[in-house]
Design brief:
Blueprint lengths: L4 E2 L9 E4 L2 E4 L1 H4 L2 E3 L3 E9 L8 E9 L2 E7 L10 E4 L4 E4 L1 E6 L2 E5 L2 E4 L3 H8 L2 E6 L11 H15 L17 E4 L13 E6 L2 E4 H7 L8
Parallel strand pairs: 5-8, 5-9, 10-13
Antiparallel strand pairs: 1-13, 2-3, 4-16, 5-6, 6-7, 9-14, 11-12, 14-15, 15-16
Helix pairs in contact: 2-4
Length: 221
């Protein structure tokens, strides 16, 4: 089984160097970042865990050093005093999307393909995709109910890649790859287009700004 995997956040678009355990982003990359605190508390969210279970309202997820440190009822969970608090009232929080058959090129005609090293990574991340597998394939799914559709794009992908202990659902100890959606995608799948923030390893990126940055360049670079 081919297991070549690309972590979107570090794919070409993101120039990073690592000093000790702190990630240093390039100036260009930083222009797309909304949140990058050591400890972040996402409060009052409507939590879609990703495993097919029903959504739970009024939930808080605490991110520390890129992983989910704790989660629970917003009225009961104790939040560290040094945490950056983000109010997600009226919004949904779900796992980042895991895609299994993706490409970084675009057909240009006459059998030619253009490499999309700049636009595609930004588009993937802006659309909530936080983990991809290149040259992979899965059996097509059809007539999925909405809960199943979300599960297929999160938990099922993690299982296929044998990464379910790290990704695919929102659970304590897992990597903080999360999506903030201004709506209820489990009951209205069109709301998945209303992504506002994409957290990759606990760093929150501005989805709309990423989309805007590649306008007019898709298919060219």
């Amino acid at each position: 089984m081919n297991r070549k995997i690309l972590r979107i956040i570090f794919l070409l678009f993101l120039s990073v160097t690592v000093l000790a355990q702190n990630t240093r982003f390039s100036r260009d990359t930083r222009s797309y970042i909304l949140y990058d605190s050591q400890i972040t508390a996402l409060k009052y969210a409507r939590l879609i865990k990703g495993d097919g279970s029903p959504p739970v309202s009024n939930q808080t997820v605490i991110i520390e050093n890129g992983k989910i440190k704790a989660m629970g009822d917003s009225d009961k969970l104790q939040i560290p005093t040094e945490a950056e608090i983000i109010d997600l009232a009226g919004k949904s929080l779900m796992p980042g999307l895991i895609m299994l058959h993706e490409h970084m090129f675009y057909p240009a005609g006459a059998g030619h393909y253009n490499q999309q090293s700049i636009s595609f990574p930004r588009l993937y991340l802006a659309g909530g995709v936080t983990f991809i597998r290149t040259a992979g394939s899965i059996e097509p799914y059809s007539d999925l109910n909405l809960k199943k559709a979300i599960q297929v794009a999160t938990w099922n992908g993690a299982q296929y890649l044998e990464l379910e202990s790290e990704l695919g659902t929102i659970e304590t100890g897992k990597i903080a790859d999360l999506i903030v959606v201004n709506g209820n995608p489990d009951s209205r799948i069109q709301d998945i287009r209303k992504i506002e923030v994409v957290f990759k390893d606990g760093v929150g990126f501005d989805s709309q700004k990423l989309f805007a940055s590649v306008k007019g360049t898709v298919g060219l670079r």
